[in-house]
Design brief:
Strand order of the largest sheet: 1-2-4-3-5-6-7-8
Distance between the termini: 14 Å
Shape: globular
CATH architecture of the largest domain: 3-Layer(aba) Sandwich
Mean pLDDT: 92
Low-confidence stretches: 1-6
Strand content: 15-25%
CATH topology of the largest domain: Rossmann fold
Number of strands: 8
């Protein structure tokens, strides 16, 4: 594994500071696995899930811009911007080729990054991601619209309300990744969704069939939050996939 100088710290561009933590594997030359959290969360959503991976992988957790300990910056939120932040992070930490697991918005960031820099991604695990706003179930889309309207009013009076409105708008209006751009990727990919996910089943199937080397696993009785609902099944699928890819 390329040398990583810091166990935790920040990388900075001209606009924001991105916080990360490195959980070093006991295995020398272990591959790097990057974990990307969802909308409105931080890296701690993965607590309790990556420990079983440390004998085999060095795990890098990241707070997306505007989340956790990472600063907001002045630029408008977008998955393209978040993917550029990830590109800055891996370059500044001298990480070449890596594995990535993204949950929800983190899956969207991983896909955006893979489209732009396919040579850097050894394998992907995408949990509850989507490539367009139409991938959300209609009832969920309506609920988000109502939340965004309320947050818009709060945003007139508070910084927190403004940020929440930005995050809701991100889910309502983005991403916009064409299936044709996925057809060019030959990255081994595992797509995980819950049986009762907020992402339409046919949309997840579209992502899986558009990618050259992907398979789709649906976890029975699970919601969008499969890590919480079925932690043992989730961890088993992740580890088995990564071991197969190795």
């Amino acid at each position: 594994m390329p040398k990583i100088t810091w166990i935790n710290g920040y990388v900075r561009d001209d606009d924001a500071a991105i916080y990360y933590e490195v959980h070093q594997s006991s295995l020398s030359n272990a591959p790097v696995l990057i974990l990307l959290h969802g909308n409105g969360e931080d890296m701690h959503v993965f607590d309790g899930h990556f420990e079983s991976l440390l004998p085999y992988y060095t795990v890098l957790t990241v707070d997306t811009r505007g989340h956790g300990k990472s600063s907001h910056g002045e630029k408008a939120f977008s998955y393209e911007l978040f993917a550029r932040d990830l590109f800055m992070l891996v370059n500044k930490l001298h990480i070449g080729n890596f594995l990535v697991l993204g949950f929800s918005d983190g899956a969207n960031i991983a896909l955006e990054f893979a489209v732009q820099h396919p040579e850097r991604v050894a394998a992907m695990i995408l949990v509850g991601g989507n490539i367009s706003p139409s991938g959300l179930n209609p009832s969920v889309h309506r609920a988000l619209q109502l939340q965004a309207a309320g947050s818009g009013l709060k945003g007139l009076f508070s910084k927190g309300g403004k940020t929440k409105k930005e995050l809701l708008d991100l889910m309502l209006n983005h991403p916009h990744i064409e299936p044709s751009s996925l057809e060019k990727l030959s990255i081994p990919t595992l797509i995980i969704t819950g049986e009762n996910d907020v992402i339409k089943h046919e949309h997840s199937t579209l992502i899986a069939t558009s990618l050259r080397c992907a398979r789709h696993e649906v976890i029975a009785k699970a919601s969008h939050f499969v890590m919480r609902d079925t932690p043992q099944e989730f961890d088993r699928l992740v580890l088995e996939f990564l071991m197969e890819d190795d």
